[in-house]
Specification:
alpha+beta; Rossmann fold; OB fold (Dihydrolipoamide Acetyltransferase, E2P); 2 domains; 6-stranded mixed β-sheet; 5-stranded antiparallel β-sheet; 34% strand; binds adenosine-5'-triphosphate
Length: 382
């Protein structure tokens, strides 16, 4: 059992606030991913949990015990880094055995027991045939497995991984993602994993914390952060291509609000601006490229545009559509949909899937978004 809790943690390096009031609860056996752009504080957060850094404010708990200032060796965590840092002169066996050998007395274990543990973990990671080799005689993927084995041999309570797959080529990385996930589930070790690669996060995580500028912006399972972004940052950091964001203006009309966007307008019925906190003139309308359909004829409620460019991706095409001025909306459609550059087409957004964000704070305007979605759910049921 290992639950990790960060309570209002702050870490500064001089004037840089690397971790800015971060609170997180990571459940037992969970595969938890810290995702965000370079410099957002992911590694520092991980190092704070490992005990390699101490926070300036806040506390860190493992299974309810305050470990904020305890030493790494007393936390029973194992960390795997981006550069595997294997000892080049040692065999694979000795590399894996190292964490046990240096604590032999403390752990009260014999050489035989060490051998048994190393063999077992090597079997688990499918590297038992490589135990006599030196790291230089291994491929990148094999070196990665040795590093994972070394972190696992002590059977830590918590596994901390900092971009462990980033040195691998694309194919191997995808294969290792699946293996790591299998291994983590099989062993049931609570894992905190750092990456800036959204595809990696989406495919491996039970839950993701999206970070920016030292802060946690949203925590949720992969589907939730993709479909229900609570902030425009999450909407535009996740997705390939990311969510389309269009600057629009909201104003009160009879029985609702009117969203005036470049090239189209949209009524939101049954909600008034008085009821909705923080609604000012300008808002951001967010629509994922996956949730827009294309029509060649002007059906009611469609938005006219001209195809700017078509990017074929095999089974899908990304179509960039110029709706007015320099406003481009990206749409993801099946590769069977044939459209050409310069062609006039009509876009039909799935209004149940849109999000509306405050243009000042970037936060989701929950009430308006919900109202618009409900309207369209009801309409769909009629
Ligand atoms: P990356 O994906 O590039 O590794 P990250 O999200 O892991 O980035 P951190 O390494 O945690 O980000 O860094 C957060 C901020 O703190 C950055 O601005 C970084 O320059 C700064 N920082 C991190 N470690 C130190 C340090 N030891 N001394 C000074 N500044 C640091």
């Amino acid at each position: 059992m290992a639950r990790v809790e960060l309570r209002d943690v702050v870490k500064r390096f001089g004037k840089t606030v690397a971790v800015d009031h971060v609170s997180l609860e990571i459940n037992d056996k969970e595969f938890f991913i810290l995702l965000g752009p370079s410099g957002c504080g992911k590694t520092t957060t991980l190092r704070l949990v490992a005990g390699l850094e101490y926070p300036d404010e806040g506390s860190i708990l493992i299974d309810g015990e305050d470990v904020t200032y305890s030493e790494p060796k007393d936390r029973n965590v194992a960390m795997v880094f981006q550069n595997y840092a294997l000892y080049p002169n040692m065999s694979v066996y000795d590399n894996i055995a190292f964490p046990l050998k240096i604590r032999k007395k403390q752990l009260g274990i014999t050489d035989d027991e060490i051998r048994k543990s190393v063999t077992e973990v090597a079997r688990l990671l499918r590297i038992e045939d490589l135990l006599n080799r030196k790291p230089s005689q291994l491929s990148g993927g094999q070196q990665q497995r040795v590093a994972l084995a070394r972190a696992l041999v002590r059977r830590p309570k918590i596994w901390l991984m900092d971009e462990p797959l980033s040195n691998l080529d694309a194919l191997l990385r995808i294969a290792m993602r699946a293996e790591l996930k299998r291994l983590q589930k099989e062993l049931g070790i609570t894992t905190i994993y750092v990456t800036h690669d959204q595809a990696e996060a989406m495919s491996m995580a039970d839950r993701i914390a999206v970070m920016n500028k030292g802060r946690v912006i949203q925590v949720g399972d992969p589907k939730e952060v993709f479909l229900e972004p609570r902030h425009v940052f999450v909407a535009t950091f996740l997705g390939s291509p990311p969510m389309n964001i269009i600057e629009c203006v909201i104003e009160a009309i009879d029985n609702g609000l009117l969203l005036s966007c470049p090239g189209f307008t949209k009524e939101i019925k049954g909600v008034s601006s008085d009821e909705v906190d923080g609604v000012k003139g300008k808002v951001y309308l967010g629509i994922r490229p996956e949730f827009i359909s294309i029509s060649k004829s002007p059906l009611p409620g469609t938005i006219k545009g001209v195809v700017y460019v078509v990017e074929p991706l095999g089974t899908e095409n990304i179509v960039s559509v110029n709706i007015i001025g320099d406003i481009i909306v990206k749409v993801k459609v099946g590769s069977d949909i044939n459209v050409n550059t310069g062609e006039t087409i009509y876009l039909y957004p799935d209004w149940k899937r849109i999000s509306i964000f405050d243009s000042d704070t970037g936060k989701l305007l929950t009430r308006i978004t919900k109202q618009l979605r409900e309207e369209y759910t009801e309409e769909a049921m009629v």
